[in-house]
Specification:
14 strands, 1 helix, single chain, Immunoglobulin-like
């Protein structure tokens, strides 16, 4: 598909300074690109780098989710986030990628509130305790029929000091373990 035109979005329902890119030659497919997004354009497609990208047809409006999550998480903890949407979507999922594009963790979000004018989804990603500290990419995607959004953001995974105790096994400890214990009843 060839990108025909890039023009400023002038709809009152969207954030200011966003861009709409028409996809395809004379097609009715568009991509909303958030003002803070980073991307490049290849011959026939948009290559997202960071930010929100919402794909829709000419007769629809783009999806504008508000996505919140911490920018820093300790390894072994849970990365939690919320996705607020004015439109109902069929599903929302998230993936954590490393710098090479390998998927490290993925999970589906679950809806925690559904009203006529808004929906709230919760996202929980378990960060592996053996994951090295560093910068990773969080990808959140949602879909509603022909419309879908794709959000890319950075997450810093920091080292966590796990508690441990070193016990030296010696003759005295062995004797202690083999003696009858009052609380055990032995």
């Amino acid at each position: 598909m060839k990108i025909i035109a890039i023009f400023l979005l002038s709809l009152l329902t969207s954030p200011l300074c966003a861009e709409i890119v028409r996809l395809g030659a004379g097609g009715e497919e568009f991509c909303y690109i958030s003002p803070d997004a980073e991307y490049s354009i290849a011959e026939d497609s948009i290559l997202p780098g960071q930010g929100l990208f919402s794909y829709f047809s000419g007769s629809d409006k783009p999806l504008y989710p508000e996505i919140t999550y911490p920018g820093v998480v300790e390894r072994g903890n849970i990365l939690s986030g919320l996705i607020f949407l004015a439109a109902a979507v069929d599903r929302v999922s998230a993936k954590l990628w490393d710098a090479e594009g390998n998927i490290l963790v993925e999970a589906g979000a679950f809806r925690i509130a559904r009203r006529r004018d808004f929906n709230v989804w919760s996202l929980l990603l378990g960060i592996p305790s053996v994951l090295k500290g560093g910068r990773y990419t969080l990808a959140v995607e949602g879909r509603e029929k022909e419309r879908h959004f794709f959000h890319l953001g950075a997450v810093e995974v920091v080292e966590k000091k796990f508690g441990f105790e070193q016990i030296a096994l010696n003759l005295q400890l062995s004797d202690l373990l083999s003696k009858p214990h009052i609380q055990k009843g032995t």
